[in-house]
Inverse folding.
């Protein structure tokens, strides 16, 4: 079973299910930047 299967569509739960600290930090940063991108350019 992988992290996405455990969390479903909930992004916050997905980040919590990531077992590795470096990977968790990377995923958090990606989603933060994605939120900024969406705020500037809107939802595709």
């Amino acid at each position: 079973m992988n992290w996405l299967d455990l969390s479903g569509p909930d992004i916050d739960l997905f980040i919590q299910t990531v077992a590795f600290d470096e990977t968790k930090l990377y995923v958090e940063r990606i989603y933060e930047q994605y939120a900024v991108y969406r705020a500037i350019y809107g939802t595709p």
